[in-house]
Known about the structure:
- This protein is α/β, with parallel strands linked by helices and 356 residues long.
- The protein has 13 helices and 7 strands.
- The protein has helices at 46-56, 74-81, 98-102, 106-118, 130-162, 178-186, 191-222, 228-234, 242-252, 261-268, 292-308, 310-320, 325-346, and strands at 14-21, 26-32, 35-42, 61-67, 85-89, 272-277, 280-286.
- The chain starts with 13 loop residues before the first strand and ends in a 10-residue tail after the last helix.
Amino acid sequence: MQTQGSKNDFSGQNIYVGIDVHLKSWKVTIMMESLFKTTFSQNPCAETLYNYLVKNFPGATYFSAYEAGFSGYWTHYKLLSHGINSIVVNPADIPTTAKEKVQKEDARDSRKIARSLKNSELVPIYIPSLVSLGDRELLRLRKTAVNDTTRTKNRIKSSLYFNGISIPEEINTPKWNKKLLKWLDELELENVNKQTLDSHLSTLNHMRQITLKLTKQIELLSKTEKYEKNFDLLRTIPGIGQITAMTILTELENIGRFNSLDKLCSFIGLVPSTNSSGDIERTSDITSRGHKVLRSALIESAWVAARVDPALAKCYNHYCKRMNANKAIIRIAKKLLSRIRYVLKNKQPYVLGVIS
């Protein structure tokens, strides 16, 4: 990266920096209020960018933006630590021309971000604290471990089916118990097939141990001062278990940033897609945009809540008379979310409704 020293004083001026972040390099565009300066590549280092700005634009106020993605928020916090006013934006919210869509390249992307930043067209996303990000990773790691456990079980079943072996009905339960695991361990197979099964069982045992360890860590986390009160409030809501409650608290962090239920539903993705033109209005299934982790957790909890909460059970049966079950459960999830927002904002436990 070539730089040129400057003795000019840029005090009172704003410098806008658009960054296209990649693993091994950043494509950076510098713009001023009425002037495009330059686009260049640099190492993925906030300090390098800061030194460049100080050397070439001393005394200026620096603003930067980059797209949320694989690199998380460490870049944001590093830029802030160097005095750069950084924001992170949703890639889908950056104004993009038709030409930029069909001729996509890193330099053009960084110029697009810098231009939108200069024109005040970017809306920053919410950045959780570093502590909350660490807690969130613990919950997400457990979900990954659970998914890996399920995949391993499916591989074992597939291997058994391939060899014409059926699991006895009396031990074939959704949750694999000790009897089923003992039966698998004692199963007599050909040499190579037995080695394959033993490898799968070893992987399964390992993933179960990891999941158990993470679950215990999450239980301890729920008892800390930061989460205990809100955790206990959420647990009063039917359908909200330990893992779901902690997922909600770590993913949302601050329920106060949503000043209405509609905005919270929109953030999570419990709103329909719309396509309207003139007098024609079309509404389809829920939008693909949203918080997939929270949406999945809420829908799973809604199925439970529809069975144990009389008020929600009545609503679910009413919805099923005019729509299929999958659409009905989305509406139950929205009602469940309304209960979650209420108990967290008002710091009051949920009282189970009584249906006469």
